[in-house]
Amino acid sequence: MSLEYRLNLFREGYFNFDRVIRIARRRNELRNERLKKRKPRYRYNVRDLFVNSNTITFTPHKKFKRPELIKIGKEKVKACLFKLAVNENECWELKDTIKGKGFYIPSSENCDHDMSIPKSKYKDELVGFYKMAKSSLFASQAFLSYYHVLEYNFLQVADEELYNKSKAIINSPSFNSNYNQVNKLLSILKKHERNLDETNMLRRVINKYVDEEELIEFIKELEYEKKEKIYSKPKNDIFGEQKFIKLEKGHVIANVSGVIKHIRNFLVHSSDKYTREECVIPFSESETIITRYIPITRFLAEKIIYGDAK
Fold this sequence. Notes:
Largest sheet: none
Mean pLDDT: 78
Strand content: under 5%
Number of strands: 0
Structural class: mainly alpha
Distance between the termini: 37 Å
Number of helices: 11
Order of helices and strands: HHHHHHHHHHH
Low-confidence stretches: 100-108
Shape: elongated
């Protein structure tokens, strides 16, 4: 126990005087036996009168070697730093994981989020993109960094979908090498290839990691805060096209995917040489449109990071 804790027990009345007297007598007897020939002058410390016992002990289940301890420790620290970025907008990184120099770290606002150590291990690549977005001064860079989190699992999710559909046919007891069965398998492969455009892959990723009803509620809350239906009934076009999000099951994920992919295209293609379309100009009204959709993109990125954690 700390001295303050022992004093507090005394103040609150949780103090066993009989136990203190027994301990003092036992110490005195032991001291007499040890020092009876020298006849010393006894000295007592006031602290000795307060019971001092263990409040808690910790015993690990097994002994860890140093490399394993360092590995486990780094995983926990990285999880804490990710939580710090999510809750406090503070983007920090371990020194030995940074290859380049110079990070802009914005000051955080006061908040009362839970800051306990996370139990999950998050994927470093996704957390890196997320921190880049959170620490960026520019809306366009933040949007693209969040989009990289969504884009990271494009092929993996598409391959999983193809694998499951193909397996369902091949593992069927009726499957054989006749023309109809093989043609059925080929049609799935061809249809899969036709649906490998980025918008469809983005939709697949969102559909895998994000609950549709939760996404609807999140967008409704954003519109409630803005006191305007800026997503479901926007007043202005988004880079030359009328885009809206229908806040209903079966529609919201497809609409969100289309809007996010549309904005991403105008961020990465700065020239109108071929399509003659409007393009994003830094520090212009374009930034207002991008900023409006950052909360949704951040929400999706966080859900994917959580869903990919172990």
